[in-house]
Each structure stands twice: as structure tokens, then as C-alpha cells.
Amino acid sequence: MNFYEHTIIARQDTSPAQLKQIQEKYTNLVNKNEGKVVKAENWGLLYLSYLIKKNKKGNYIHFKIEGSGKTINELERNEKIDKNLLRYLTVKVKKLDLKTNYFEKKSEEVKEKSN
Questions:
Q1: How many CB atoms lie within 10 A of CB 23?
Q2: How far apart are CA 80 and CA 75, in angstroms?
Q3: CATH architecture of 2-114
Q4: Average pLDDT of the segment spanning 47-56
Q5: Helix/strand/coil (H/E/C) assignment for every residue in 3-38
Q6: How far apart are CA 109 and CA 112, in angstroms?
Q7: Nearest Cα to 83, choosing from 33, 14, 29?
Q8: Which residues contact residue 23 at a Cβ distance below 8 angstroms, ignoring those fewer than 6 apart?
Q9: DSSP H helical ranges for 33-114
Q10: Euclidean distance between the first and the last CA atom of the chain, given in angstroms as a whole number
């Protein structure tokens, strides 16, 4: 089994309920194709570097996946036809970093440092 980090960017006008539904949809898709979602993170609404399909912002969802190339091919095939997604990116990694959360809220970091 290989390890992958997979990030998708959903449209900026996607509701929180739709985001949860998108996350569940792709988690189930990975599980059906002999893969396993080790961790899923919702990074929230972030500015894009440039306009993508007339959107200035996008909702980022990041998955850490354990699976095969077949799993990723099926995942990306489904994402190509999804109208709610702007972009997706899959990177193969040697091991998964489950400790670091790069996009946690700043207020939580301040609380941790003060304790």
C-alpha cells in the first residue's frame, strides 16, 4: 500500500452541509476502492492565488490516504466530473505526517502557548 496526500478545492459558495457531504462522498469512494482515509482535514475558506472559474476563494479539504494507484485513479476520475470542485491535487508521500495540522485556528495556537 502507498501513502498519498490529496487536496480538493470546492467552490466558495458551497455551504457547510455540502462540504460535509463532499467529504463523506470521497471518503466512501476511497473505502470502496480498497483504500483507507487515515485523516481528513477541513482547512476552510482560503484565498486562491489567481481566479479559477471566476472564484477568488475556495474551500479546501485535505485527505491523508492509504491505498493503491487504482484507488487514486478512481478518486480523480470522479472529481473531474464534479461541478462543485475547482481543483484537486494528489501527492504520493513516503510516510504520513498525522501530528502536524498546518491550518488550525490561530486562537488555539495562542491558548496553547500561554499554558
A1: 18
A2: 9
A3: 2-Layer Sandwich (3.30)
A4: 90
A5: EEEEEEEEECCCCHHHHHHHHHHHHHHHHHCCCEEE
A6: 5
A7: 14
A8: 40, 42, 61
A9: 69-80, 106-114
A10: 40
pLDDT digits (tens, 9 = 90+) for 53-104: 899 999 999 999 999 889 999 999 999 998 989 999 999 999 887 777 777 6
DSSP bridge partners of 37? 65
Count CA within 13 A, CB hemisphere, residue 26: 33
What local confidence, expressed as pLDDT, does residue 115 receive?
A: 53
Q: Dihedral, CA atoms, 80, 81, 84, 88, nearest 10 degrees? A: -10
Q: Phi and psi for 105 in degrees, rounded to 5?
A: -65, 145
The neighbour count for residue 104, using CB atoms within 10 Å, is 12
Residue 14: C-alpha distances to residues 70, 73, 86, 108 (Å): 29, 25, 11, 25
